[in-house]
Amino acid sequence: MDVLASRLVRFLHTSDWHLGRHLHGLSLHDAHQAFIDHLVEVARSERVDAVLIAGDLYDRAVPPPDAVGLWDQAQTRLVLEAGTQVVVIAGNHDSPARLSVSSRLLERAGVHVRVGTGAVGTPVLLEDEDARVACYPVPFLEPASAVAAWGVEDRSHAAALRAAMGRVRSDLALRPGYRSVVMAHAFVSGGQGCDTERDISVGGVQHVPGAVFEGVDYVALGHLHGRQRLADGLRYSGSPLAFSFSEAAHVKSSYLVDFGVDGLRGVEEVPAPVPRRMARLTGTVEELLNSPAYSAYEQCWVEATLTDAVRPLSPHERLKRRFPHLLKLVVPSLAVEVGGRDLADLDRLSPVEVALDFVTEVRGRPADNDEVALLQRTFDELRRVEVTR
Questions:
Q1: How distant, in Å, are the alpha carbons of 199, 240, 326, 357 from that of 27?
Q2: Domain spanning 9-271: CATH superfamily
Q3: Which site from 13, 114, 150, 316 is most exposed, i.e. has the minimal number of CB atoms within 10 Å?
């Protein structure tokens, strides 16, 4: 990444940090810390004018203390170490009230936090010798808030964004010579989602047409976790980390965006650090345990889907010996015939018989003689304890 000979306005487009998120019960705190270290270094070395965070800074409305600490560290280091401004909008996971605490004071330090409808249409101005950019943060807007604030009649995300963009265009018309950037948190038509994005549909409709942003030089989108280009100036940066195995094939990154006096000059991908590779493996327990084809995945975060015809014994414990970072085990349901009994038969069965039917149903084969004997001894002991109470 070469710094251009003549200084332009340069920013980093990021989104969907989801601070406080876990991956199948595993804390991602250290991975988020590594991303923040990387971001500060890129912003410093590439002389970035502003870091844009297009929503979902936090994973939930009431973030845990360590997540708040990460954000405090990130904004402080970006301003003091990298010398850059920061612009962040609320996403659908964020609490506007909590995210905007001390926002007026932070604004004076160069951290611009925008939530709700009040500041829509008021830009953050990024200027250099040869380029001037008006960055318009448009936070995630519930349609009801647009109805209340602007009298929007159609309760939809598209209508809310159209109203917001009307305010943006009105302000931009008063700024001749400025190029335009809009930050928005929305599901734009043509984008590809995955299973980690929370549904934001209203009345069954959540998509917003890209034409809503027509006339804007660059739209820094957030909400979808996969990096994607819908047009040269209409992009999702995606999340900096993978938050489920549906994102295993994603290449995580940020966009380094340059503006000149004549508009958008270039967009470059900046790969994010990978805390650990992810792998989705499929096979029988024996294949996964013994095949050399899986050797390359032994240190990955692993999702294993079993194809055994009969449910195996203790598959999780056995697979963890080869794949110590196994996070998810998928055992497809097995269609098993269990003697054709109906619920009325249960009253006529002994506890041992009920337990044996259960073993057959969940495992796909009957208990062997030793297991039958163990169950019989166990129920005998339970009856003995019950009698002596």
A1: 23, 15, 14, 39
A2: Metallo-dependent phosphatases (3.60.21.10)
A3: 316
